[in-house]
C-alpha cells in the first residue's frame, strides 16, 4: 500500500477541492520518547514494529506557515527564514509530502518552517515539523480532520510525528492493520507539573545516519533486535503504571534502560551505528555518579548525541550544579 492510498482512504473523494483561503498556519510541539519507536513493519507508511510512549515539550517545536503560490512552477521551502534548495533532503521530503495533497499537478505552495530546536540532531525536529505541516494543511484546506486522522497523516511524513499532535504524555499504538488506520497517537490523561526535562546539547551538527536508515540497518543486521519488541512490551506496562502512581524513580529507570537498549541494538548492527560522542558518554557517567549519591536524575537519548535529562522540579537547582548548560523544560507548565 502506498501513502497516496492512505490519503484516499481518509479523504475518499474531495482531494481535488481547492483551498478556501490563501494561507494556513500551525504549531506542533516536539516530543521525547520514554519508550522508543525503533523499527518499522512497513517502511512506506512508517508503521512501527511496536507501540511507543512520549512526552511533548510544548515550548519547543515547529511552526509551519503555508501560502499559495500563483506564479511559481515549483514549491518554495524556507527553514528558519532561509530558502532551502529543492534538491536538499529536507525540501525533497516536504515536496514529496505535498504531492499527496495537491488538487492539481501545477499547484504549489510556499512552506515556511520555523524551528525552536536544531534540525536533525536527535531532538525530534521531524516530529514537530511534519505534525505542524499536517495541521497547517488542515487549516489551509479547512479539512476539519480529527486529531486521530491528523496523527495518521503526520505519520506518513515521519513516524515520531504521530505523537506530536498532543500535549503531555502520548502513546502511539502500533496497530496491526496493513493500511495503518489503527496506528495513531492517543494522549494519556496524566498531568505531572513537577516533571522536568533538561536538554543537554552535546552537538548540534546534523547526524550522518538518518533514523530511517539506522532503523532499517538495525532490523536487517542486529542480533539483538529480536528482543526489542519484548523489551518494549514490558517497559510500556511499567511506564504506564509509574505514570498512574507518579513513581518517578520507576519511570526514569525504565525510560533510561529503554533508550540504552535501543542504542545496544544499533551498536550490534553492521556496519555499526553509534550516536554517542565522547561527551555523550561523559555526561552519562556523570548522571550515574550523581544518581549514586542520591539525586533522582535519569537520561534518555534519541538518534543523535544529545541527552535529555529527566528530574523533578524540586531538584532543578541540584541538577544545574552538575549540568549548568542544560536547558530546563517544564512540559506541563505553560510558558508566559
Ligand atoms: O520519526 P523518526 O524517523 O525521526 O524516528 C525517531 C526515532 C527516535 O527518535 C530515535 C525514537 C522515538 O520514538 O522518537
Summed up, what is this model?
With 336 residues, the chain is α+β, with helices and mostly antiparallel strands. It is built from 9 helices and 13 strands. Helix 3 (125-141) packs across helix 4 (147-157) and helix 6 (228-244) runs antiparallel to helix 7 (248-267).
Q: Please, what is the oligomeric state?
A: single chain
Radius of gyration: 20 Å
Return the structural class.
alpha+beta
Question: Which range does the strand content fall in?
Answer: 15-25%
> Mean pLDDT, rounded to whole units?
95
CATH topology of the largest domain: Ribosomal Protein S5, domain 2
Helix-strand string: HEEEEEEHEHHEEEHHHHEEHE
Descriptive labels:
9 helices; binds (3R)-3-hydroxy-3-methyl-5-(phosphonooxy)pentanoic acid; Ribosomal Protein S5, domain 2; 336 residues; 4-stranded antiparallel β-sheet; globular; Alpha-Beta Plaits; alpha+beta
SSE blueprint:
Blueprint: H1 3-11, E1 23-35, E2 40-42, E3 47-48, E4 52-69, E5 76-79, E6 82-83, H2 89-99, E7 108-115, H3 125-141, H4 147-157, E8 169-172, E9 185-187, E10 195-200, H5 211-221, H6 228-244, H7 248-267, H8 278-292, E11 298-301, E12 307-312, H9 316-322, E13 327-329
Parallel strand pairs: 5-7
Antiparallel strand pairs: 1-4, 2-3, 4-7, 4-8, 5-6, 8-9, 10-12, 10-13, 11-12
Amino acid at each position: 500500500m502506498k501513502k497516496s492510498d492512505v490519503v484516499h482512504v481518509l479523504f475518499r473523494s474531495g482531494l481535488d477541492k481547492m483551498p478556501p483561503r490563501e494561507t494556513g498556519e500551525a504549531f506542533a510541539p516536539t516530543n521525547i520518547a520514554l519508550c522508543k519507536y525503533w523499527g518499522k513493519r512497513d517502511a512506506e507508511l512508517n508503521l512501527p514494529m511496536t507501540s511507543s510512549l512520549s512526552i511533548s515539550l510544548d515550548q519547543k517545536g515547529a511552526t509551519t506557515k503555508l501560502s499559495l503560490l500563483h506564479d511559481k512552477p515549483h514549491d518554495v521551502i524556507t527553514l528558519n527564514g532561509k530558502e532551502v534548495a529543492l534538491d536538499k533532503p529536507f525540501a525533497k521530503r516536504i515536496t514529496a509530502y505535498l504531492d499527496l495533497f495537491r488538487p492539481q499537478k501545477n499547484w504549489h505552495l510556499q512552506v515556511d518552517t520555523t524551528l525552536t530546536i536544531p534540525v536533525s540532531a536527535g531532538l525530534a525536529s521531524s516530529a514537530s515539523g511534519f505534525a505542524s505541516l499536517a495541521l497547517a494543511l488542515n487549516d489551509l484546506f479547512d479539512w476539519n480532520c480529527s486529531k486521530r486522522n491528523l496523527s495518521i497523516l503526520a505519520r506518513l511524513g515521519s513516524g515520531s510525528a504521530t505523537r506530536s499532535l498532543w500535549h503531555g504524555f502520548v502513546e502511539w499504538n502500533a496497530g496491526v492493520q496493513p493500511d495503518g488506520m489503527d496506528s495513531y497517537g492517543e494522549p494519556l490523561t496524566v498531568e505531572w507539573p513537577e516533571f522536568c526535562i533538561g536538554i543537554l546539547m552535546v552537538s548540534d551538527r546534523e547526524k550522518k545516519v538518518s533514523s530511517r536508515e539506522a532503523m532499517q540497518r538495525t532490523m536487517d543486521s542486529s542480533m539483538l533486535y529480536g528482543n526489542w519488541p519484548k523489551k518494549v512490551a514490558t517497559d510500556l506496562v511499567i511506564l504506564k503504571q509509574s505514570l498512574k502512581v507518579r513513581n518517578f524513580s520507576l519511570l526514569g529507570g525504565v525510560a533510561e534502560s529503554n533508550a540504552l537498549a535501543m542504542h545496544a541494538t544499533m551498536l550490534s548492527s553492521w556496519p555499526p551505528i553509534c550516536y554517542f560522542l565522547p561527551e555523550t558518554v561523559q555526561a552519562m557517567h556523570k548522571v550515574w555518579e550523581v544518581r549514586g549519591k542520591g539525586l533522582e536524575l535519569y537520561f534518555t537519548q534519541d538518534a543523535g548525541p544529545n541527552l535529555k535529562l529527566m528530574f523533578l522540579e524540586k531538584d532543578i537547582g541540584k541538577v544545574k550544579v552538575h549540568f549548568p548548560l542544560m536547558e530546563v523544560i517544564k512540559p506541563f507548565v505553560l510558558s508566559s
